Amino acid sequence: MAQQNLNDLLAFLAVVQEGSFTKAAAKLGVTPSALSHAVKGLERRLSIRLLSRTTRNVAPTEAGDRLARAIEPLMQGIHDEIDALGQLRDRPAGTIRISCNDYVIDTIFRPILQDFLRQYPDITVELAVDYGFTNIVEQRFDAGVRLAESLSNDMIAVRIGPDWRFAVVGAPSYFASHPPPLSPRDLTAHSCINLRLNPASEVYAWEFAKDGQALQVRVSGQLTFNSVVPSLQAALDGLGLAYVPEDLARPHLQDGRLQSVLHEWCPVVQGYHLYYPNRRQPSSAFALLVEALRYQSKA
């Protein structure tokens, strides 16, 4: 009976986390009907309704929400301890899940992954592209990556990248029919490629600074992305001006496919940091990845 209760609690928690019997069943590798049967059995034994079911979604009742919040950290603790057993093996092992954006993957992770994965063949790294402010604890990530200014005080943070500068860039074909902007305010007369970090947020206001003067400009154009990489590609195609990390655009600036404007207005940003909960006991695999990523200033 105890084992049955544990299995049904795991089934119930998966449904709450996924908000769907179908998604939870796929995650657990069972059928939706089997999952529904398990949850109904748990509700019957507890004599209380845990989930509110409609034709479109599934949500916990007040009792279900209380139960989910109580058992989720316990289940996560068991998961973490099982992962930590990899430290007792001859070789570090385990899966490390990290939330970050594609610019970070290309400029920070990609240069170290080939040697790291070859050196530690039993370690698996999962990188999820995300430009929003994902709650890494709720989404069960081991860590996330953010700029220093966006870090929470209750997280351990390790710097993994240098300071960098934004750049406003456009293709020669675009500037052939549009005069280069001389100040950030001139951007309102240009076709600009917007960035929306997550579906619920406003488009990102381009930030500028010069001689102690800070300025934000809300630009307009026909294109909006949630990533700087397609924004850069659209600029290369001559579809407008993009506001992107300068080092991402540098190869195209050097070969003349892009031109930079408003350079003296473009701010320098503090480097990216890897962050994770301070209550988390890092596994040996996680600690090795942190050290491989840790930024060493060349100054």
Which sheet architecture does the biggest sheet show?
5 strands, mixed
> What is the top-level CATH class of the largest domain?
Alpha Beta
Helix content estimate: 25-40%
Order of helices and strands: HHHEEHEHEEEEHEEEEHEHEEEH
Distance between the termini: 63 Å
CATH topology of the largest domain: D-Maltodextrin-Binding Protein, domain 2
Report Rg: 24 Å
Helix-strand makeup class: alpha+beta
**Shape estimate:** globular
Strand content: 15-25%
The second-level CATH architecture of the largest domain is 3-Layer(aba) Sandwich
Main sheet: strand order: 4-3-5-15-6
Mean pLDDT reading = 88
Q: Point out poorly predicted stretches.
A: none
| Continuous helix count | 9
Number of strands: 15
Q: How many separate domains make up the residues?
A: 3
Features:
D-Maltodextrin-Binding Protein, domain 2, 23% strand, Arc Repressor Mutant, subunit A, 299 residues, 3 domains, globular, alpha+beta, five-stranded mixed sheet
Describe the structure.
The chain is of the alpha+beta class and 299 residues long. The protein has three domains: 2-70, Winged helix-like DNA-binding domain superfamily/Winged helix DNA-binding domain (Arc Repressor Mutant, subunit A, Orthogonal Bundle); 89-161 and 271-293, 3-Layer(aba) Sandwich (D-Maltodextrin-Binding Protein, domain 2), CATH 3.40.190.10; 164-269, D-Maltodextrin-Binding Protein, domain 2. It is built from nine helices and 15 strands. Strands 4-3-5-15-6 form a five-stranded mixed sheet, with helices on one face. Helix 1 (2-18) packs across helix 2, helix 1 (2-18) packs across helix 4 (62-84) and helix 2 packs across helix 3. The radius of gyration is 24 Å and the shape is globular.
